[in-house]
Amino acid sequence: KMFSYKNTFSAFWGEKKRLRVGYLTADIHDHPTALLVQGMFAQHRVMKEIEVFLFSYGPNDGSLYRKLIQDECEHFHDLEGKPFLQIATQINQDLIHILVDMKQHTESHALSVLSLHPAPLQIAWLGFPGGIGGDLVRFLVADPVVTPPDFSSFYQEHLALLPSQLTYQVNNLKRDPYIGEAAEKKNKRRAKKRKEEEEEEE
């Protein structure tokens, strides 16, 4: 491993004694992942024992999703276009204790960052509910439905399964259903239809 964790652990035993959790993703824009996680980071901020960092290496589309999530995070790094080594270095310099990869084997993944092991504990969650392999992460966060415990022998990672009544796929039940580019187009069509109906009534 090219990074040292000496200062990382020292930071935990400082005055704050907060667990530093970093999320790594390219999907903080008008994307299904952003739709799912919007609101989650605000819940993290309620837990004073956790300090949240988001490492976003995807495009900034200026969407409302992007703005809402950025405002929710205590620390937000816009790393679009940055090389993987620079992203990994930023993670290590922020003394992240737990790095959560939200892409895994999907488009625009950051497996090269994980291969550098910038954080002492790396886990996978959300983007791909399957194993990564390659000794890149130690745990896979999932649930008993998408990753049945009986199949644990097929995974290189340890399975961190949520209780059976929960699903690994987070969701924001309070979100506005009319956010996003697709919803905006739909709203315009509805407005146009209402206008046409009003004109017909006249």
From TrEMBL:
The keyword Transferase applies. One of its GO terms (molecular function) is glycosyltransferase activity. Coiled coil: none annotated. It comes from the Eukaryota. Residues 14-165 form the O-GlcNAc transferase C-terminal domain. This is O-GlcNAc transferase C-terminal domain-containing protein. Pathway: Protein modification; protein glycosylation. InterPro entries: OGT/SEC/SPY_C (IPR029489). It comes from Hanusia phi. Gene3D superfamilies: 3.40.50.11380. Signal peptide: none annotated. Keywords: Repeat, TPR repeat, Transferase. One of its GO terms (biological process) is protein O-linked glycosylation. Residues 179-202 are annotated as: Disordered. The lineage of its organism: Eukaryota, Cryptophyceae, Pyrenomonadales, Geminigeraceae, Hanusia.
